[in-house]
Amino acid sequence: MANLKLSQLPVASALAGDEIVPVVQGGQTRRSTAAALADARRGAWVAPTLNAPWTNFGDLFAAVGYRKDGNRVQLRGVVKSGAGGTVVFVLPAALRPSAQLIMTTLSDVAAPTRIDVRANGEVFVGLPPSAQVAWLTLDGISYCTDQ
Q1: Which pTM does this prediction carry?
Q2: Kind and range of the H or E run holding 36
Q3: I want to staple 96 with a disulfide (CB 3.0 to 4.6 A). Which of 102, 103, 121, 145 is the partner?
């Protein structure tokens, strides 16, 4: 099999994650698992610093976080005790969109609730400033980056 082209290899079945696969790293062939390679691509969840008055909702829901999966940025978590017209947190430069994005989510105030992910990294709640928000979810918000 050493002299076969990739196109001549048999088709593999779906990976379970525990298979050992070869990886060339720093000029050396090493071994890893399919799951570890997927995790490295996906990136770990990062907990941002929330702007006051926003706080994480609590133990029932995931804490607010972001991660990069290839060229896609994903947000998650539920926040509480905030207000419309405010910034929940700011994304790092490498995860910012090239232009402002308008997304929708759910909150106790209105469904749908507007969330703007701005080119400067601000995750902004697009409700009137007078709106007191008991809870707001960021689960399911995702977008592609140019980086």
Answers
A1: 0.75
A2: helix 34-42
A3: 121
